[in-house]
Amino acid sequence: MVLFEIETERPDVTGLIDVVRLLAVLRQAGHQTAPEEVVELYAEATTALGGRWTGLSLREALRAYAAATGLDSLHSLVD
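^ that's the sequence the OP posted. Answer follows.
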């Protein structure tokens, strides 16, 4: 698995895109991880680092991010 740090390339982009990219990369690598599991794992990991995401707040933020950026797909993360 290759991890790509978008903030290094584009500091104006939030970490939310990492969640979308993570699910896409997992699927491309043949992993069938449920979108809900990816959201929860990301929320848990950021909480461990001092973040305050819940699964629900993260899904709401992803919807807002997609609307604001015109992102076409969230790969079922908020369905």
